[in-house]
Amino acid sequence: MLSSLFPLGWAHYLAGGLVIGAGVALLYVATGRLAGMSSVFSSSWSFVSARAVFRQPRWLESRAWRLQLALGLVIGAALWWLTLGPAQPLTTAVPAWRLALGGLVAGFGARLAGGCTSGHGICGIGSLKLPSLLAVLTFMATGFITAQGLAMLGAAP
After folding, report:
1. pTM for the predicted model, two decimal places
2. Model confidence at 157, in pLDDT bands (50, 70, 90)?
3. Phi, psi torsion values for 134, nearest 5 degrees
4. Which of 7, 49, 68, 96 sits at a 20 to 30 Å CA gap from 90?
5. Cβ-contact 50, 67 below 8 angstroms
């Protein structure tokens, strides 16, 4: 049963979750800052956009450390891939248009919910914020309903 759910094994998922949780907790305990990724996206736009929404003090004051956090995540993922990752690149049969559409829908949802799924799930719930719990429950319910609806329509995963 587990091998069908996790064809590449489950240990790296557990290790990844523990490392992410520890990193988020360390950042919060050491600085009082939350490490949500949609905030990184918004604050990064403050480097190149003059729009008022990106010029808010909260984005301008936090953009340097948020950009460093994002770069650290990319560098960490690259180091993992080079040292512990699979020898062959991973591929997907999902068409590029579906991936792009999914990204647009997820991005819209992140803005609508005031944060992304990981931000609410890891940082928000971790800091005991009720709105984050409600957001995560909404994300999960919507995902379950959508997956069941698509399965009923015969859409392939």
Report:
1. 0.68
2. low
3. -65, -40
4. 68
5. no
